[in-house]
Design a protein that fits this description.
The protein has 64 residues and is an all-alpha fold. The protein has one domain: Phenylalanyl-tRNA Synthetase, Chain B, domain 1 (2-Layer Sandwich), CATH 3.30.56.30. The chain is built from one helix and no strands. The longest helix is centred in the middle third of the chain and has 10 residues. The N and C termini lie far apart (30 Å). The model has no long low-confidence stretch (mean pLDDT 89).
């Protein structure tokens, strides 16, 4: 069974504080990543990304 990794845009957004969802160092994060940019990056890494547009980041559930 393949383990899924969920990447929410705030997890890699350099403009977000860690308390607002950024999971990686600001040094490696990018400003305001879009869903299409994340998907493109995953495909370039030979991953098989699944985009679920009806899902929302739990801390920002109102932004669907």
């Amino acid at each position: 069974m393949v383990k899924k990794v969920i990447i929410w845009p705030p997890n890699i957004d350099s403009q977000k504080a860690r308390s607002h969802g950024r999971k990686i160092s600001e040094k490696y994060a990018v400003p305001s990543p879009t869903l299409s940019e994340i998907k493109k990056a995953a495909m370039q890494l030979d991953l098989n990304p699944e985009v679920e547009k009806s899902k929302a980041y739990p801390k920002e559930w109102w932004s669907v």
